[in-house]
DNA sequence: AGATAATATCTTCCGTGTCAGATATATTCC
DNA sequence: GGAATATATCTGACACGGAAGATATTATCT
């Protein structure tokens, strides 16, 4: 049984025999897979009342270790979103009482976004479910396949600066 | 040199030693990589005056072969977006004269979205550039690595129904 | 110190997507 | 044939992120 991308590639070979569309075997699949996986992950976030943006913020703060705080700039760099998106994500977390927005010492321009107690409890529970979910999604693979896939993706990420 | 995800995983191991976060080596990397690659691909679409949605519509129609037509439902299934998104994407292509929206024979509910001559010319040029871009992005890998990555992603896609 | 530039964050506007419901047409069952 | 249901598409409200510019604060240079 061929997957969708195999079908697509066969169509292109028929229609554009002048092009070598083999890269699609990697890139189109990666793209579709990422979409599909995101759907799966988001469902677990939603079970905890979290959207992707909020989960991203809380998890990023949580993994820094105590006192679970970063500046908006650092948050944006780690999560690959614009400064405007950071502001809005933090606003939403703030409205729920999951984080606080304080003034950073010394530099009046800087802010300090920190997890509150309730935010930490929430992300600790949500993250455990999230990881269980990821284990489920990877259950297709043997340990060797997982390592191989991880290595290839890591190599690619390093090269492209991701 | 460790990539970002390696750092993140080390943080989690420190903070949540109770959890096995190894799936992140695959899932988080895939996620970030997809984001980064999308950025790269979108730049080429933009060189032809296309957004991702428009490129998606035109390319999907083009690869069907003559007469380059599908229903909105089929378009949505192949491109993994909602019916509302299909309507809007087609509206945009329509405004540029790249597709036509006709009535499907027999069934008055159905529509028939078809490439126009100018749409076909546009996507033929854009797609050639797109494939060249994909070749460039995959240049990091040896042929063996590419096949290996493609096989692993295909296996995953088949299992999850992507 | 005062002017200029740099940095950090926030605000505003816009584009695009999803979701729920509206509409139009077709099918089924009596 | 008519009612109920199913299917295909579109519409409208809303959510979220990006981009550019506004604001606030700090650093630098003379």
TrEMBL record, chains A, B:
Does Ligase appear among the keywords?
A: no
Domain HTH marR-type residues, every copy: 23-158
Any idea which UniProt keywords this protein has? Answer: DNA-binding, Transcription, Transcription regulation
What InterPro entries does the database record attribute to this sequence? Answer: HTH_MarR-typ, WH-like_DNA-bd_sf, WH_DNA-bd_sf
Listed GO MF terms: DNA binding; DNA-binding transcription factor activity
Q: What is this protein called?
A: MarR family transcriptional regulator
Q: Which organism is it from?
A: Nocardioides luteus
């Amino acid at each position: 049984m061929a997957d969708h991308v195999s079908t697509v590639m066969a169509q292109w070979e028929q229609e554009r025999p002048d092009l070598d569309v083999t890269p699609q075997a990697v890139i189109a699949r990666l793209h579709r897979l990422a979409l599909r996986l995101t759907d799966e992950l988001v469902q677990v976030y939603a079970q905890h009342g979290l959207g992707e943006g909020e989960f991203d913020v809380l998890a990023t703060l949580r993994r820094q270790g105590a006192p679970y705080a970063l500046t908006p700039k650092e948050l944006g760099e780690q999560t690959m979103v614009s400064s405007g998106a950071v502001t809005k994500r933090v606003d939403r977390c703030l409205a729920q009482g999951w984080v606080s927005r304080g003034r950073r010492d010394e530099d009046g321009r800087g802010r300090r976004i920190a997890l509150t107690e309730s935010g930490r409890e929430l992300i600790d529970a949500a993250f455990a479910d999230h990881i269980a979910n990821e284990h489920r999604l990877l259950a297709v693979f043997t340990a060797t396949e997982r390592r191989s896939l991880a290595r290839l993706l890591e190599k690619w990420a390093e090269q492209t600066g991701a």
